[in-house]
Amino acid sequence: MKFGVPYNRAKTIARTELAHVANLAREVAYRTQTNVEKFVYWTEPDACEVCKRIAQKTRYGVRLDELKWIIKMEAGGTARGFLSHPNCRCIPVRKNKVKRSMRDWESFKITRILR
Fold it and tell me: What ranges do the domains of the chain cover?
């Protein structure tokens, strides 16, 4: 424990902050460089129940602002941008991107760098 923060807590903070920044960059890119209007919430198989509910509600695609609202309504006070809770690894993905193979998922795993 350095700086008065336990290692696991520091790791959680770093992972969450990295995911938040990656999602902000993803949002800016989607809004400024694409014409994509529909997004889904991509979860991993071991996602929590909150994230699974968000993914279910967005399965047909929603606008980015609507996705943020759904996350806020489902996750409540733990939500921050596109993250429903600390350590969240779920991300907004263009609806048409979901049809690709799971191998393509590797290119989206920016938020797993610190894992």
Answer: 7-112
